[in-house]
Specification:
With 284 residues, the chain is of the alpha/beta class. 48% of the residues lie in helices and 10% in strands. Helix 3 packs across helix 5.
Length: 284
């Protein structure tokens, strides 16, 4: 899927009351104090996002095509302190943007008489984009549907809500679900930290990975009318399209030995010297 550097557009977003400025006192006539960057996190970031939601969504919609990508929407919050290394501080604020963008994308697709939507799902670092690009039929689908919602969707509650929203509006949802083994997936996360400055801690990876166990069975039970395309990208094999029954054999067990291997992967990247101090701190 095409990825656009939305954060560059966010830098030119001008909102008059969104910047904290420290001005001089009357006694300091000779030197002006520099403008201080605005940093808001947590609920303060949510409230700021609510106040500026139309401007933020308009910036995103100008370049996103048919794609909702949470990594890209979150980049819009760089103007209030998001650095890609502090995702948890902006999780709720970015979800707010996602929810509005999702509606706007469905509005756009409906106006174009294309009421189809493709969801992608898979653990962090599983290789969704590579797997999609290596399956021409699925890539063609992603290019042609009205909306593509790209995400990990470790939270089935959020996924279920978005599917229900689309179905209520008469959209036909489809799902591409990608698997990779834990060691390879976390290695991919570390490579992305170097290339895109996006951090996933060992603790987050270890806690989320097992949440996908039994996911195919869940999807079949709760969304029986939704076409499901299962892609096995084990060991970054490029993404092999497999049956649902084969996908039910995917192993999301997180053993103590596997946890130690993931911590060892993190340490091996730290030892290379390729990570910045800020990136290392974000992994702790």
């Amino acid at each position: 899927m095409k990825r656009i550097q939305i954060w560059m557009l966010a830098l030119v977003l001008t909102i008059s009351n969104s910047t904290a400025l420290t001005s001089c006192s009357k006694d300091d006539n000779d030197v002006s104090k520099p403008e201080q960057p605005l940093v808001l996190t947590g609920q303060a970031a949510v409230e700021w996002t609510k106040a500026h939601i139309d401007s933020l969504v308009n910036v995103y919609m100008a370049s996103c095509g048919n794609l909702l990508d949470p990594d890209m929407t979150r980049d819009l919050l760089s103007c209030i302190g998001y650095t890609r290394l502090n995702v948890l501080d902006y999780k709720n604020a970015s979800w707010l943007i996602d929810s509005v963008v999702f509606i706007r994308l469905m509005d756009r697709a409906e106006a174009a008489n294309n009421k189809t939507i493709l969801f992608t799902m898979g653990m962090y670092g599983c290789g969704k984009t590579v797997s999609l690009n290596n399956n021409p039929e699925l890539k063609k689908m992603a290019d042609e549907v009205g909306v593509v919602s790209d995400g990990a969707y470790n939270s089935v509650a959020k996924f279920d809500k978005m599917v229900a929203q689309s179905v209520d509006r008469g959209f036909q949802p489809h799902l591409i679900y990608v698997y990779n083994d834990a060691e390879t997936g976390y290695t991919n996360c570390m490579e992305r930290l170097i290339s895109a400055n996006r951090a996933v801690t060992c603790e987050a990876y270890i806690s989320v990975f097992p949440q996908y166990q039994g996911r195919v069975e869940y999807l079949e039970e709760h969304h029986p009318n939704m076409p499901l395309y299962c892609i096995d990208n084990n060991h970054n094999n490029g993404g092999k399209w497999v049956t649902n029954e084969e996908a039910k054999q995917w192993d999301y067990t997180m053993t103590e030995d596997l946890q130690q291997k993931i911590y060892a992967i993190k340490q091996s990247y730290i030892d290379t010297g390729k990570l910045t101090p800020e990136q290392i701190a974000a992994l702790q």
